[in-house]
Amino acid sequence: MAIQLNGLIKMSPTSFNSLDDAALNEFSEILWTAKFHLNIIGIADSRPMALPVLLEELDRRDDKIEAAWQVRKLITTGYFYNSFEYYLGNVDDNWAREFVLNEATTKQITSSMLSGRDLSYIAWSSIRFAAGQHSIGSTNGNRHTCNTLIGSINRTFGWVTEGRYSNNGFERGKRQPVLSSETLLEKIAGFTPDDIYNLPPVPEEIGDDKEMEEV
Predict the structure, then answer these.
(1) In whole angstroms, what is the distance from residue 168 CA to residue 117 CA?
(2) What is the number of other CB atoms lying within 10 angstroms of the CB of residue 208?
(3) What are the residues whose beta carbons fall under 8 Å from the beta carbon of 33, sequence distance 6 or more?
(4) Among 51, 12, 54, 52, CA closest to 35
(5) Which residues contact residue 11 at a Cβ distance below 8 angstroms, ignoring those fewer than 6 apart?
(6) pLDDT computed for residue 106 by the predictor
(7) Which of 138, 184, 196, 211 has the highest CB neighbour count under 10 A?
(8) Which residues on adjacent β-strands are paired with residue 10?
(9) Which is higher by pLDDT, 13 or 193?
(10) Beta-carbon count within 10 A of 4 CB
């Protein structure tokens, strides 16, 4: 919220309080969702005009790269949930509507350092397996099918982490829309949408340290 604390924007208490805690440092969330007014003389009070001004402010931040990596991680994790919701929504069975991710699996997803491509594959593959087991009668009722899906997610996570699969068929589609937050990250830190989707959200320094440990 440095842009607000520095007086660059004015936001009503109601708009500020409506933001979730997780959104307080989400530039895209504030820019496109929250109701605010610019507080800069000579700049029109509109989002298109605000974007370059706010990007300039972000560019002054000492922690902009660190913040960009954090946002990149959130976007990468979001690829799992978006894919999961899409594929599960295509399953026309009651068990799919009853399914809820448990806490342990959610924690595994959140802490994962896999790429968006890998996570999208895990979502698709796990749902495909569970739906197939249900359709041939290998599961006993909706609860059993839901537990089968949880188990499939966990197993597929293990296989992907160990490199025991190929995700060549899960390339980012040419018509896949680019998120506004991905566009902002490219401007702020140079991360392209393809980088965000195909590569793990791990800063180079951390990746180099891991490679040295393995050697």
Answers:
(1) 9
(2) 11
(3) 23
(4) 12
(5) 4, 34, 35, 36, 37
(6) 93
(7) 196
(8) 37
(9) 193
(10) 16
- Confirm if 11 and 4 have CB atoms less than 8 A apart: yes
- DSSP symbols for the chain: -HHHHTTSEEE-HHHHHHS-GGGTT-HHHHHHTS-EEE--TTS-SSHHHHHHHHHHHHHT-TTHHHHHHHHHHHHHHHHHHHHHHHHHHT--SHHHHH----HHHHHHHHH----HHHHHHHHHHHHHHHHHHHHTT-S-HHHHHHHHHHHHHHHHHHHHHTT-S--TT-PPPTTSPPPHHHHHHHHHH---HHHHHHS-S--HHHHHHHHHHH-
Let me know if 80 is exposed, middle or buried by CB neighbors in 10 A (0-12, 13-18, 19+): buried
Amino acid at 214: E
The residue type at 167:
N
Q: How many residues does the chain have?
A: 215
Q: pTM for the full model?
A: 0.69
Greatest mean pLDDT range, 25-39, 83-97, 162-176: 83-97
